[in-house]
Amino acid sequence: GILAYRRPIFSEPDLHSRYDIPLENPFALRLEKRVAGHGVNVTAYPHLKTYNDVGLIGHSPIDSEFVVPPEKVSLIENGILKGFLNGRTPTPYARHSNGHMNHVVFANRLMQHVGPSVIKIHSEQTHSLEEIMDAFRKKIRAENLDYGIVIDMIEPLTGSVIRDSIRQHSDTPS
Question: How far out from the chain centre does Cα 90 lie?
Fold first, then answer.
């Protein structure tokens, strides 16, 4: 969602489907539109090395294209999509590099790929876990669903949901 990329050019027509490579960013048409709740802000801090004395993974003084990223990149402001992370290649919705091209291993090859640095998600509205779960159960009832799913953890390198972290919540209070 927050990564800018151009429609890829393939030598083989079905290469994108074999490797699950998206053809377009579905968020591209949402620029300057609401994508999150009021008060939600998402900002990349590429140079941030620590938070509360804990070292952070993802900080980088320079990306793999030798671009020095700015101190921060605003992605979502007050719920409105404001920008994307991108490399040197301009796109219709990200015309300038902001230093987020990284090296990744993909299909057993070292490749460059636009990827996040240190991302801060902040909401001006805060709620306790109990309040959130109560609202979640009410939403399940309102939608007439048998259950809802809470994902506790996503594997950071692949984006896969860790199977043990999925819990089902029926509309009966716990």
Answer: 20
CB atoms within 10 A of CB 86: 25
DSSP code for 133: H
Secondary structure of the chain: what % helix, strand, coil (to 5)? 15, 30, 60
Identify the residue whose tokens are 């998402």. Answer: 42
Q: Mark out the alpha helices in the chain (DSSP H runs).
A: 15-18, 129-142
Q: Which of 62, 40, 61, 65 is nearest to 49 (CA)?
A: 61
Query: What pLDDT shows up at residue 57?
Result: 84
Bridge pairing between strands 73-77 and 109-114 = unpaired
Query: Which of 60, 132, 131 lies closest to 99 in space, CA to CA?
Result: 60
| Better pLDDT: 1 or 30 | 30
Confidence at residue 117, expressed as pLDDT on a 0 to 100 scale: 86
Q: If we measure between CA atoms, which residue out of 91, 135, 147, 140 comes closest to residue 114?
A: 91
pTM of the model: 0.66
* Average pLDDT rounded to a whole number, residues 137-147: 87
